Task: inverse folding
């Protein structure tokens, strides 16, 4: 039972065992000199206070050791990715051997599809969601073109039913089954960026495997947001960025997952690079690629240490908070936001919107998408002027992400009060 009052919100915060983690992040300041209400972690997470020292440590080692920093210093750069592996595996429910941090998201998606999109004969099609984030659409388009196919023929997009905004799981499963002899790859996001819908990764993977297809996922909006069990769900591959819910800085490094059944098989095709070569033989500079065991064998270039240092500082916070604890708070916090928004609609006749994110907590993460009317941008600008950072998506959607790592129940309450103050001009 929720109550739209500051006393209720503060009582929830008082009982919140994760509340102290908010103090580990830096908040932008509004023009009035107070911290903003930051509800945009689904686009760019806040900076951990520990990031500055993490970066300084690597700069100091560079100045002290020069090239010898690859083997000397606090965290030798030669195997820097290993410092992140265990924590990254915790976030996505993987075995450490199945995970490596490298490159950026779309680069990694291309590398993974090079390994796992292997069209043969009549089995060359890809099933994906309609309205996927553009980088996914562009990556898939170029991959099918590379293999000599046309997008309109080779890509089957699953759409919401008429009058609906989210895609029904039953429609996804039915479409997979109806094209069972044509599908090479089933590729979805974990959480749909626009609507905030959490896809049933486990069921989609099972349906793909049932027809002999590969199941891959873009977890850009899922990693650090929902409870993912990639190994247990038998997902073939996945990739994610680190700058949204994982709070690791703009454009920072990506992570990949390759299931153990694939990544420990040296016969699994991959585009090879020097840094993925077997570590104890890497400096022999010999012909013939021998991959490092596991997902690390997909590395191509040496680690971007400065970015990875920041990412490590954030992953350490996730390790301390616990992804299960964060998910539990996320459900409660997002449910409270939904309650507040519905209360606002009832009390302020100048506001009109529809929440297009699923109402079931099991079908969404830390995001509610508001489909507004023609006055939506005016409402968004009102919130911005009040010191709220949320996200506007054309043509008329406001995305609000109550991130459990650094958002509070009082933040949500205050957002509601600012919306109640909105008046049409």
Result:
């Amino acid at each position: 039972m929720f109550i739209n009052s500051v006393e209720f919100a503060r009582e929830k915060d008082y009982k919140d065992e994760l509340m102290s983690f908010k103090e580990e992040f830096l908040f932008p300041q509004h023009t009035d000199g107070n911290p903003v209400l930051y509800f945009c972690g689904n686009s760019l997470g806040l900076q951990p206070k520990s990031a500055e020292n993490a970066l300084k440590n690597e700069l100091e080692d560079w100045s002290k050791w020069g090239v010898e920093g690859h083997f000397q210093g606090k965290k030798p750069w030669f195997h820097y990715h290993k410092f992140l592996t265990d924590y990254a595996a915790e976030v996505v429910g993987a075995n450490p051997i199945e995970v490596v941090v490298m490159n950026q998201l779309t680069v990694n998606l291309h590398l993974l599809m090079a390994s796992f999109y292997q069209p043969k004969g009549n089995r060359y099609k890809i099933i994906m969601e309609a309205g996927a984030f553009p980088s996914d659409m562009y990556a898939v388009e170029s991959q099918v073109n590379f293999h000599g196919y046309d997008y309109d023929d080779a890509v089957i997009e699953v759409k919401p039913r008429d009058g609906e905004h989210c895609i029904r799981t039953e429609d996804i499963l039915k479409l997979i089954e109806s094209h069972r002899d044509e599908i090479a790859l089933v590729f979805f996001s974990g959480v749909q960026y626009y609507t905030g819908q959490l896809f049933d990764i486990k069921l989609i993977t099972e349906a793909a495997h049932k027809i002999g297809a590969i199941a891959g996922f873009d977890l850009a909006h899922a990693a650090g947001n929902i409870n993912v069990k990639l190994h247990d769900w038998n997902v073939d591959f996945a990739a994610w960025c680190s700058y949204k819910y994982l709070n690791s800085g703009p454009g920072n490094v990506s992570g990949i997952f390759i299931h153990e059944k694939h990544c420990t098989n040296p016969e699994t095709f991959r585009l090879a690079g020097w840094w993925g070569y077997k570590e104890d033989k890497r400096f022999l500079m010999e012909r013939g690629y021998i991959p490092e065991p596991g997902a690390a064998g997909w590395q191509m270039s040496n680690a971007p240490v400065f970015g990875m240092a920041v990412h490590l500082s954030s992953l350490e916070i996730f390790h301390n908070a616990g992804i299960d604890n964060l998910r539990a708070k996320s459900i409660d916090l997002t449910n409270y936001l939904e309650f507040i928004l519905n209360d606002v609609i009832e009390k302020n006749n100048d506001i009109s919107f529809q929440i297009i994110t699923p109402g079931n907590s099991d079908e969404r993460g830390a995001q509610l998408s508001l489909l507004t009317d023609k006055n939506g941008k005016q409402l968004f600008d009102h919130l911005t002027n009040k010191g709220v950072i949320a996200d506007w998506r054309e043509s008329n959607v406001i995305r609000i992400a109550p991130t459990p790592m650094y958002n509070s129940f009082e933040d949500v309450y205050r957002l509601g009060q600012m919306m109640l103050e909105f008046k049409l001009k």
